[in-house]
Amino acid sequence: MSDGSPSLPARLYLLAWDTARRRLRPAPGLAPVVRAGALTELTGRGLLVDADGVATPRDLDAHSGDPVLDGLLELVMESGPRPWESWVTCYAGVTLRAVRAQLAAAGFLRADSRRGLGLLRPVAYTLERVQAVEALQHKARQTLTGPEPVAEVLEDDAALVALAAAAGLPTVTGPADRDGYGERIEALTVRGSRAVPVLARVVLAVRTAVSGPDTAAPPARTGG
């Protein structure tokens, strides 16, 4: 977010906010999908590569310039080899909290510390840049439901919506959307996978984290 534009994991986090009430909506898949967004962006930037199914740093000295992404990259470097699916959930709360702090520093969120009965309560966050988040949510919803051909959707936007749908973020996908827009979601996953081939794997991992291995849909085909 060094240029002021939210990263992919930050945008996924903002999709989970209720802009009318200015508070975070309950979303069981939020931490995994934010982590999946960070993995996707690091791979898109060429900082993580796939080595026989294992997420592998391209260069031990490489950095993105984004503290959230670099924090995850450092975690991957310091840990033993893990498959992509494992990284979607492993310590995912670390990335979620880092994204939240980053968005607060950028003015998207306001952090409020309150005392009650002499005790310092946990920090509460309130959405500040409501119009910007509403625009982000509207664009994501239009990507899913609008008339634009999938072939013309930007690959980054396709990845955003494919991941949001996998997590069931309510501002993007409603209960009936998995059936009504299932083919388009798969097509968007394929579209995003053109730039980041591991996208289909992390999308499936998010679905599994949310609904369990028995109900998660198979990954979208990326060609061949």
Question: How much of the polypeptide forms β-strand, as a percent range?
Answer: 5-15%
Walk across the major sheet and give the strand order: 1-2
Uncertain spans: 218-224
Q: Tell me about the biggest sheet?
A: 2 strands, antiparallel
What class, by secondary structure content? mainly alpha
Count the strands? 8
List SSEs in N-to-C order. Answer: HEEHEEHHHEEEEHHHHH
The Cα radius of gyration reads 17 Å
> How would you describe the shape?
globular
Give the integer mean of the pLDDT values.
Answer: 90
Q: Please estimate the helix content.
A: 40-55%
Number of helices: 10
Q: Could you characterize the architecture of this molecule?
A:
It contains ten helices and eight strands. The C terminus is likely disordered. The termini are far apart. It is mainly alpha-helical and 224 residues long.
